[in-house]
Structures are given as structure tokens and as C-alpha cells.
Amino acid sequence: MTEHAVRFTAPGEVSLAEVERSAPGPGEVAVETAVSGISPGTETLVYRGEVPDELPADSELSTLEGDLSFPVEYGYAAAGRVVETGEAVDDDWLDRRVLAFHPHRTQFCASTDHVVALPGELSTEESAILPSVETATNLALDAEPRVGERAVVFGAGVIGLCTTALLSEFPLESLVVVEPIPARRERAIRLGADRAITPGEAATLFDDEEPDGADLAVEVSGQPDALDDAIAAVGFDGRIVVGSWYGSKACNLDLGGRFHRDRIDIVSSQVSTIASELGGRWSKNRRLATALEQLEQLDTDAIITDRLPIHRAAEAFERIESSPEDTLQVLLHHHSTTTTDGAGVDDV
């Protein structure tokens, strides 16, 4: 029997390929996918061909194999039900709802170590946002927001909005989101930002405050120019956490101005690993459990904008590219023209 897989075949080209259905190995389960989420960050870079071809897909995820040269399958938010178990897997896994960090396939096999059993109160659709919430959780761990600080989030895409919602729970003096698209600024306010401004307003954001400048900036816009804006926005000894992956896009920073004298810190945050200074207390399992708790409180209606059947995957990516003012989190439904919660999927 065959299944279907979303495959990137060239820059801007997506196809639905037939792949042989495989049986689960001894320690694996077979999952029939109900829904998968498109990552509007890394995955769209792959779609555009804006990643180094020779770079491994992800050395930390066994479900992502090979490098990022075309043709390639990429994705890491597939949710569904276990329909078969390997001989070394307890039968209790059968019919469980799970999420796996796996590319878009209508059915796949994965080790039980690489799937997440979903709590009953979380819908299968909502679970497709879990990887983004886990990324936001990792950003918060790396950012270390402190009471009374001024924080700025650059970018109100899916990761930026998840990060905004999480940071809004901290006792900050202010939380500001910088985003060029008006509709996304409105969503940021809905998810807890105190203000949402345009990039042109960021450099003078706290000029009238004492001391001036933000304490913390989180850069998740995916735009290299935003890193310069973040440097301009933070004050003396300010810190910038970069969650964006720019792929092959050049990042020309202006480090000849106040960056050096003002002792500004720039650090990278990447969800595949946990900062070494946290390793004695934080594991990936603890971070994932924390992210699940945050997801249960998240207003997902402010983030999920589009639902399409998997055979329209090419259109889904076109929407992300052509309609950023309307499109954020796109979900692909795999086996039905109705969603897991009974709502209709646009299939005209």
C-alpha cells in the first residue's frame, strides 16, 4: 500500500508524492496522520530554497533524514492516532493520539521515544502548534526575563506570537511587539502585548525613559535587518536573543556604533538543544511538559488562520508567501475534508 508525502522538489515547487507504507519496527508505532502544521519560518526557507543545500535536515531529530538539497521532505508537526505497534511496544499505545516531529505524510512510523502522547483536553489541531510553543518556551528560558524589565519581541509570526503570549505572563514593566503588518500587530495585542508598533518606531521606543532602552529583545522576525533594529532598541548592557534562522540570507550588522561601547549581548536560541547552564535542571522532557501546559492556555484561534487538505499543500505554501497579512499558521488535513473537531475544511 502507498501513502502520500509533501515533497519540496525545487525552489517554490511542492508536490504530493506516493510513498510505500512501511510496517513499524520493534520499538515503533505506525501513526495515521490527522493534521500537520506548516512551520512558517524554517519550512518556508526550505520551500524558497534559502537554506544551505549541504546542511543536515536536523541532527537532533531522527525523523528528518539527509540534507536540505532538493528533493526533500521537511516538517515537524504531524499529529494523529496510533494504528499499529511494533512487537516491543505495549498494546496500550494503540489508538492513542500522538504528535511526532515528522514531515507531512498521511501515515508514518516513529519510535515511541520520538512521539508525544496528547492529553485528552488538547485537540489534535491545537497539538500541531506544540513545536512552536516549545520553541517559544526555549526562547523564554534563554532570555531570562526579569521582574520590571522592558521587553521587545521583533516579529509577530507564529513563533513571535507564541513568545509574546508566554512573556505576557511575566511581571514585566512593558512588553512591546515590533511588526510591519497591521493585522499581526492586532493579534499581538490580543495575546498579551502592551503595545505593537512598526519597525520604524523601534529605535526610539524608550528614549523618554530613565534609563533609556529596552532590557531585553527577542528577534524572531526571520529578517536580518531586524537584528540591527534590536541593537538600536536595547539600552546599555541590554541583551538580544536571536531565535530567527536566516538560512542563506546575508546578515550585515552595524556593529561600529553603540553595540561595542554599550556592552550589548547577542545570543542564539535554538530549540534542538538546551543551554548548558540549564542542563543540570532542565531536560527536553521537562521543557516539553512545560510547553504542553502553555499550549493548553494559549488562544490558538489567534494563530491558526488556514486549514487545507493535504492535496492542496502547494496552495498552502503559496498563501503563506503571497498573503502574510492574512495567513499565519496553516494546517494540512490528511484523511478527510473535515477537521478533527468537526469544522469543515475548505476544499473547493
Structural write-up:
This protein is an alpha/beta fold. The chain folds into 2 domains: 2-129 and 303-333, Quinone Oxidoreductase, Chain A, domain 1 (Alpha-Beta Complex), CATH 3.90.180.10; 132-276, NAD(P)-binding Rossmann-like Domain (Rossmann fold). The chain contains 9 helices and 15 strands. It has helices spanning 42-48, 124-127, 130-143, 158-167, 182-190, 225-233, 258-261, 284-297, 313-322, and strands at 2-10, 13-20, 28-37, 78-85, 97-100, 107-111, 115-117, 150-154, 174-178, 195-197, 214-219, 234-242, 265-268, 304-309, 329-333. Strands 3, 4, 5, 6, 7, 14 and 15 form a 7-stranded mixed beta sheet that branches. A 6-stranded parallel beta sheet has the order 10-9-8-11-12-13, with helices on both faces. Strands 1-2 form a two-stranded antiparallel sheet. Helix 7 links the parallel strand 12 (234-242) and strand 13 (265-268). It is globular and about 65 Å long. Mean pLDDT is 92; it is low at 337-344.
Tell me the span between the first and last alpha carbons: 28 Å
The top level CATH class name of the largest domain: Alpha Beta
CATH architectural type of the largest domain: Alpha-Beta Complex
- What Rg do the Cα atoms give? 20 Å
Strand content: 25-35%
The major pleated sheet works out as: 7 strands, mixed
Name the helicity range.
10-25%
CATH topology descriptor of the largest domain = Quinone Oxidoreductase, Chain A, domain 1
Number of distinct beta strands: 15
Shape, please?
globular
The H-level CATH homologous superfamily of the largest domain, spelled out, is: Medium-chain alcohol dehydrogenases, catalytic domain
Give the total of domains.
2
Count of helical stretches: 9
- SSE pattern: EEEHEEEEHHEHEHEEHEHEHEHE
- Content-based structural category: alpha/beta
Would you tell me the overall average pLDDT? 92
| Unreliable parts | 337-344
